[in-house]
Structure formats: C-alpha cells, structure tokens
Design a protein that fits this description.
The protein has a single domain, classed as Butyryl-CoA Dehydrogenase, subunit A, domain 3, CATH 1.20.140. The protein has a two-stranded antiparallel ribbon with strand order 1-2. With about 240 residues, it is mostly helical. Helix 1 packs antiparallel against helix 2 and helix 3 packs antiparallel against helix 6. A hairpin with a 2-residue loop joins strand 1 and strand 2. The protein is rod-shaped. It contains 6 helices and 2 strands, in the order αββααααα. This is MARVEL domain-containing protein.
C-alpha cells in the first residue's frame, strides 16, 4: 500500500498571519475617533468664540444706543416748555416722542439680554452649547425686532418728531438767533448716528446668524461621524474578542 501523500504542512506562523491585520482595524478606528474628537472640540471652541463675540458687540452697541437715546429724551423733557423767538423751541403741535422711546426701550432690553447671555456663556457654556434651538430662535427674534425698529425709526422721521425736528433749519435758527439752550445740531447728529448703529446691529446679527448656522451644520456632521465611528469601533472590538 502506498502512503497517502498530502499537502506539506504550513508554517506555524503562517496560520495566524491574518490576526495582526485584523487587529489593525480597532487601532485605525481609535485614531479616527481621536481625529473626529479633535475636530469637534475645535468647532465647539469656534462656536463659543462666535457667540461671545456676537454678544459682546451687541452689548457695546446697545449700551451706546441707550446712552444716546436717554440723553435725547432727557433733553426733550427738560426743555419742552422753553421758548425762543416768541415760540416753543419744539414742534408746536403734538411733538412725536414714541419713536425715540421705542429705540430707547429696544436698546435697553437688548443690552440687558445680551449682557445676561454673555455672562451665561462665560460661566455655563457647556449647558448653553446644548440649546441649539433656543439660540436659533433668539437670533430670529432679535433680527426681526431690530428690522422693525430700524425701519420704523427712520420712517417716522418728520417735522413733528424729535429727530426730524432737530435737523430742520427752524431748529437751527432757534438755536443760533434765539439762543436756545438746546444744541439741535448735536441732537441731530446723535440721532443720525443712533440710526446707523441700529442698522449695524441688525446687519451684524444677520452675519453672525449665518456664521452660527454654518458652524452648527459642521458640528452636527462631525458629531454624526464620531457616533458612527464609536458604533463601528464597539462592533469590531466585540467581533474580534468573540473570534480570538
């Protein structure tokens, strides 16, 4: 009887040559997870910087706006009974004050809100970073309100409101020839600058809102990739543990 000749035995190391290759998969996943984690933390830092910068600028602008409007309204009420050249120095029939009060109130409310949110971001950012929907709603409301305020304030500029009257030749004549104690040219400049600041406030909110939405999309994308990498990593690790 002839002996049965089989294939030559494989070297011992060759039988397990695939194990290191399979074990490389969890290492690659761990590296990918570390990279995604770094990207996510970098994006969160940029979001935090954008929010704080936005709120800081809004706080400063509204503080200046409030100071300007407070000065204007205080000047009006302190001198509304003054006369010069035989007439009152303000519009004689129903002087319109509500546009100035509207801008005064809007700047005060926005200043207090921005200051509060700025402090909240400084001390409780981890909690604040989770409120994506609240932040988006805040941006939308803020932009909408300031669009209305800015348009109304400019639309109501006429001969019988504080801003419109301060910029008229009649007011300048009362100041120069009637020696009025109100500097109408100064009031005109202050209110014109205030309107420009309100436009800047609205425009910056729109720009920051677009930037925030961009970073929000990026954070969601990286978070989804990291979640997928974690899931794949756990599955691959469990499979290798079961086999080997």
């Amino acid at each position: 009887m002839q002996p049965i000749v089989g294939p030559p035995p494989q070297p011992y190391n060759a039988q397990y040559s695939a194990v290191p290759q399979k074990l490389e998969q969890p290492q690659q996943l761990e590296t990918e997870k570390m990279v995604l984690h770094g990207q996510l933390e970098s994006l969160k830092t940029k979001v935090k910087t954008l929010r704080m910068f936005s709120r800081a600028i809004s706080t400063a602008l509204n503080m200046v706006l409030f100071a300007f409007m407070a000065f204007v309204i205080a000047t009006f009420y302190a001198t509304r009974n003054d006369t010069a050249l035989g007439r009152t120095i303000w519009p004689e029939v129903n002087p319109k004050v509500w546009p100035t009060i509207m801008l005064l109130a809007s700047s005060l409310i926005t200043f207090l809100m921005s200051l509060s949110v700025l402090c909240f971001y400084c001390f409780c950012f981890k909690r604040a970073s989770e409120s994506w929907k609240l932040v988006v709603a805040t941006y939308v409301i803020h932009i909408g309100v300031w669009l209305v305020v800015t348009i109304l304030y400019r639309q109501q500029k006429a001969l019988n409101d504080i801003w419109g009257w301060s910029c008229t030749q009649i007011a300048t004549k009362l100041q120069d020839e009637g020696h009025s104690r109100v500097n109408f040219q100064q009031l005109c400049k202050i209110q014109s600058v205030s309107w420009v600041l309100s436009i800047i406030e609205t425009s910056l909110k729109i720009v920051f809102g677009i930037g925030y939405f961009f970073f929000y999309r990026k954070v969601r994308e990286v978070s989804a990739k990291r979640t997928l990498a974690n899931t794949m990593g756990e599955g691959a690790e469990g499979l290798l543990n079961a086999i080997f």
